[in-house]
Amino acid sequence: MAETFTFGTSLASITCHAWNKDRTQIALSPNNHEIHIYSRDGNDWKLADVLNQHDLRVMGIDWAKNTNRIVSCAADRNAYVWTQGEDGKWKPTLVLLRINRAATCVKWSPAENKFAVGSGARLISVCYFESENDWWVSKHIKKPIRSTVTSLDWHPNNVLLVAGSTDYKVRVFSAFIKDVEEAPTPTPWGNRKPLGQLMAEFKNSLTSGGGWINNVSFSSDGNKVCWVGHDSCVSIADATNGNTVIRLRTGYLPFLSCEWVSPNSVVVAGYSCVPLLYSLTADNKLVLSGKLDKSQKRESSGITAMRIFQSMDRNMRTENTDTVVDSIHQNAITSVRIYAGDKSSASKVSTSGVDGQLVIWTVEQGGINGGMRNLQI
Amino acid sequence: MRTTSGRTTAWTAPQSGPDETEITTLLTQGKVVEALLSALQNAPLRCKNQIVKDHALNITLRVLLSIKSTQIDQAIDTVDQNDLIDVLMKYIYRGFEIPSEGSSGHLLQWHEKAFAKGGVGCIVRVLSDTNRA
Question: Where in or outside the cell is it found (chain B) (predicted)?
Answer without folding.
Answer: Cytoplasm, Cytoskeleton
